[in-house]
Design brief:
pyruvate-formate lyase- activating enzyme; Rossmann fold; S-adenosyl-L-methionine; 2 domains; eight-stranded mixed sheet; alpha/beta; six-stranded parallel sheet
């Protein structure tokens, strides 16, 4: 019997942890004669192509891993594949199908079964029975279809609901849908096999791992609140998984643990282990190896709770190797009534300075998340939340929108809170009692400008300069988004160069942009960001200096010849003159932008050398 497990990811670089884990579970708990395969696609691929590749596998069992981002594609694929794979047992599982399985079975009669909840215990039992021709009458956690067609293990024949079915039953045009009892047991992570046991090339991939399941919080917008308690994987059982991932080229490891710092002991042990294995890999490859010269250091991406950041965590993280960890914290809101409504007790004021310390003093990239559309939070309240979070200058500020997920408490209370949401995945909020649909659209445009101009990192210095005299960063991005909307710019694709031109046009239309001092300061900051963003080819007119003099050209030549660069940029020693020129740019700035000079008096400028051989771009001020 051939079993094919399919994941459809949001991006090509992502990996599906679920199908890999189930593959290994089926190998250990299933029939040794089964052929178990996995395939991954992305939602950006054409469905005809995906369906064609699945069909050519000719599986006896076809299982889909379902999430809010791919469920529409999964439904379409099941409908396309059923006519050409009439004898294949097609099933679905995952968080998007675990809470209204019977409805999904009615919507997609081509499906044979749905696994609700954790599948590691359920799937081996279900497939053993199916392969032997028996009905899954007693397999907990399964909703399945008994078809009207005679013959085969799923043939209805003359059976009725009274023929020994213990679950709830209903009938439709295709037969009988049986909803078995829910599985009473949760999975012990320590008895699960290594999901990455098969040799794969993970270079350039974002690899997902888990060392815990569950969450100590019960946020009403999250389906993790439907599970009680937190289960942990023994850290040493994680070591061989991580060692193999590093050996296979993985460098970005994202922990799917809902609250990585739920247990201090566990968190420290896992991160100790991560550091040990990363250093072991470094020692194996050496300074000239895989990530010694390139700077491609393994990085752990962990989602943590800000209110659990105590002094022990701060001390631990400040001593962690630079570049080896990245943190994500869901602030969601700083408005107390909104937090109370979603049952997320926290006080942002108590831990915001700790985040600032980790980001700016320890050099640890911190992603902070906000959710627009929460109960009791209107435009003014969200503006305040945005400004409070933005003022920490996180590495990344995610402005997301409430998703009214199946199984979540917020969906059960949507009438109470006046929530209107899209009935189709991802169930994004459309309006609330406090937030109109027009305002939701305005926030969506703010989110897009935030992504282009702040989260992209390309306007780091210019945004600091422009925002220095503004009380509300939210108002700035709101004004920028409205300007873009008025110009029709959201309907077009823009190059990096064009983004500079667009924001310059916007700034020149602002009242404070009409002063000569501001124009000069903003222009210098934009020029610096432009040189950092990418090696300039053709520089926009408004960012060009006066015509280069013979003395300037001579000075640039002398700067490039300076032997100091062999020490500051070791790889330059092996470059010939042409390569060195192509890898660098030299420019004079009237103000010392990187030091944060924002006063309206001339700062001490100078020449800078920009080196583009690494990402991010390195820049060095040339000593006089």
């Amino acid at each position: 019997m051939k079993i094919l497990l399919v994941g459809i990811n949001t991006r090509y670089v992502h990996t599906n942890l679920a199908i890999r884990g189930l593959r290994e579970v089926l190998k250990t708990q299933g029939n040794t004669e089964w052929e178990i395969c996995i395939r991954e696609f992305s939602i950006n691929e054409h469905l005809d192509k995906i369906a064609g590749e699945i069909f050519e596998e000719k599986p006896d069992v076809l299982g889909f891993s379902c999430y809010i981002w791919n469920i529409v594609s999964v439904k379409a694929l099941v409908r396309r594949l059923r006519p050409v794979l009439p004898d294949t047992f097609i099933l679905a599982g995952g968080p998007e199908v675990s809470f209204d399985c019977d409805r999904l079975m009615n919507e997609v009669p081509q499906l044979d079964a749905v696994v609700a909840g954790e599948a590691e215990r359920v799937l081996p039992v279900l497939l053993k029975g199916w392969s032997e021709g028996s009905l899954p009458r007693d397999v907990a956690g399964v909703v399945w279809r008994l078809r009207r067609e005679a013959g085969g293990p799923q043939g209805l024949n003359s059976m009725t609901a009274s023929d020994g079915f213990q679950g709830m039953t209903s009938t439709d045009a295709c037969g009988m849908v049986v909803t078995n009892a829910a599985t009473p047991d949760t999975v012990d992570l320590n008895f699960l096999p290594n999901p990455y046991a098969v040799q794969e090339d993970f270079r350039g991939k974002l690899v997902y791992v888990e060392t815990s399941r569950g969450c100590p919080y019960n946020c009403e917008f999250c389906i993790s609140s439907t599970f009680k308690g937190v289960r942990f994987l023994q850290p040493e059982r994680f070591r061989p998984i991580l060692r193999q991932l590093f050996a296979n080229g993985a460098r970005t490891i994202k922990f799917v643990d809902r609250t990585f710092n739920a247990s201090k002991t566990h968190g420290f042990q896992v991160l100790d282990l991560f550091k040990e294995e990363a250093e072991r890999e470094y020692e194996k490859t050496g300074p000239e190896g895989t990530y010694g010269l390139s700077g491609d250091i393994p990085r752990a991406h962990c989602e943590i709770a800000g209110d659990l950041l105590d002094q022990d965590w701060l001390q631990y993280l400040q001593n962690y190797p630079t570049g080896m960890i990245q943190l994500e914290i869901g602030v969601q809101s700083t408005h107390p009534p909104a937090l109370k409504a979603i049952r997320r007790s926290q006080n942002f004021a108590d831990w915001k300075d700790k985040v600032r310390y980790l980001q700016h003093d320890c050099g640890i990239p911190v992603h902070l998340d906000l959710i627009a559309g929460l109960p009791h939070e209107g435009w003014a309240e969200f503006r305040k939340s945005f400004d409070e979070v933005f003022n920490l200058r996180p590495n990344h500020l995610q402005l997301g929108f409430l998703k009214v997920l199946k199984g979540s408490g917020i969906r059960r209370q949507c009438t109470q809170y006046g929530l209107k949401y899209c009935p189709d995945p991802p169930y994004t909020v459309l309006k609330t009692r406090e937030l109109s649909h027009e305002q939701v659209l305005d926030l969506a445009r703010i989110e897009e400008t935030l992504e282009r101009y702040y989260n992209s990192g390309r306007f780091k210095f210019s945004l600091e300069v422009v925002l220095a005299d503004r009380q509300s960063p939210f108002d700035f991005f709101d004004a920028l988004a409205r300007y873009w909307h008025g110009k029709g710019w959201f309907q077009r694709e823009w190059s990096s160069r064009s983004l500079f031109e667009n924001i310059w046009e916007f700034l020149m239309e602002q009242p404070d942009g009409r002063t000569a001092l501001n124009r000069k300061l903003w222009r210098e900051a934009l020029r610096f960001d432009y040189f950092v963003a990418e090696r300039p080819g053709q520089i926009p007119d408004f960012l060009q200096r006066a015509e280069e003099t013979v003395q300037d050209k001579s000075w640039k030549e002398e700067i490039r010849k300076d032997p100091i660069w062999q020490n500051r940029i070791p790889e330059s020693e092996g470059m010939d003159k042409r390569q060195w020129i192509r890898a660098t740019a030299i420019e004079y700035f009237e103000r010392d932008i990187p030091t944060g000079t924002t006063e309206h008096s001339p700062g001490k400028g100078g020449w800078y050398l920009f080196y583009y051989g690494r990402k991010p771009t390195q820049y060095f001020k040339v000593e006089s």
